[in-house]
Amino acid sequence: MSAATKDFAAQPLPPWRRAVLKVGSSLLAGFEGGGLDPRYAAGLARFIESAREQQREVVLVSSGAVAAGRSRIHTGGDGLVLRQALASLGQASLIAFWQQLSSVPVAQVLLTHDDLRNRRRYLNARASLRELLRLGALPVINENDTVAVDELKLGDNDNLAAAVASLVDADLLLIATDIGGLYSGHPQRDPTARPIGHVATVTPELLVAASGGAGALGTGGMRTKLEAAAKAATAGIATALFCGRDAEVVAALAQDRLHGTLVAAHSDRLRARKQWLRHAPASGSLHIDAGAANALRVRGASLLPGGVVAVEGEFRRGDVVELRVAADGEAIGRGLVQYNSVELGRIKGRHSRDIEAVLGFRYGESVVHRDDLVMLGGRTPAEVGAIAADPTGAVAANERNRA
């Protein structure tokens, strides 16, 4: 039995179908500036592969570009401009590193805070990540250190991971650390420190204690992990902190068992999103045919342009629209639209493969994605599809428990 499994008894992970996994430099950097070391990353890569075999999706937020760059050009110092240059040197090595450990194509995605603050960039990043997941690729995300400056930087990859979890509508945020999880004191300095397996709320007192000094919770960087967990919790996403250096702990994740700390979500993500979509002001309406209405109601499908009969109102990409059955005008759903009203007027009734030929670009094959859609009087299409595709029944059981 490892130290982490001894300190942290196994607990079940919340049901999940899409997770964001954050891996820090301490798990990747080699000794004495030796670039990237796969000894811990290999186990995490096996977990990602196991998740794929279970029809689950993982988005990877990975540090390590600076360490990889420093191994290519040996230099001292640690200023912002130098780190930007080293990150630029190391990005290709970082992606190649993960590609060697992955059986599927790896895609590099670089983000800054400005990308997530700007409406157009946010929607573009969201659409790109969804498309990568649909294609079966492994997105590897890092902060764009090459162009980021202090006022635009997200600050660290823990907080970046929390932002990405919200961006991609993840069910779970996984943060791999170099210790077992959260402790009541510094485990190497305080002999009375006890492991904390569950955190209901990240309190200001907890953050202060995690800042460092006597009685600090963990061995460094724990405050940013708790900050990230607090942000994820606000978005309805639970966070699991675990030791990425412990092969037994990492292997247990594939069986939905956590040896570490679970930070609870403040609310159910799907329920909160459904409520928001149900009550947010609509900017227009899409009139859809009977086939599309049936696909939404029965199969939990996304709305494709071929099912759109007419477009009503003026709206922008990302606005909320009502979905109405063309035959009788009945409102059956509401969702976030992926194309504006003018663009939809041009592609309505067309096959998804024709979108780029007509518009000259394509944000995705759907007009309203199932993750952004709520059926009036029922579950979201994402919930319908998740329950139908869940081989273990975990999602359905969770639904019954919430009811």
Explain what you see.
The protein is an alpha/beta fold and 403 residues long. 40% of the residues lie in helices and 19% in strands. It is built from 16 helices and 17 strands. It has an 8-stranded mixed β-sheet, with helices on both faces. Strands 14-13-15-16-17 form a 5-stranded mixed β-sheet, sandwiched between helices. Helix 2 (38-53) links the parallel strand 2 (18-23) and strand 3 (57-62). Helix 2 runs parallel beside helix 10 (247-253) and helix 12 (290-299) crosses helix 15. The chain is globular and about 70 Å long. Mean pLDDT is 85; it is low at 213-220 and 391-403.
Our estimate of the beta-strand percent is 15-25%
- What share of residues is helical? 25-40%
Q: Output the strand order for the largest sheet.
A: 4-5-3-2-6-10-12-9
Largest β sheet strand count, sense and barrel closure: 8 strands, mixed
Keywords: Amino-acid biosynthesis, ATP-binding, Cytoplasm, Kinase, Nucleotide-binding, Proline biosynthesis, Transferase
Pfam families: AA_kinase, PUA
GO cellular component, one term: cytosol
Pathway: Amino-acid biosynthesis; L-proline biosynthesis; L-glutamate 5-semialdehyde from L-glutamate: step 1/2
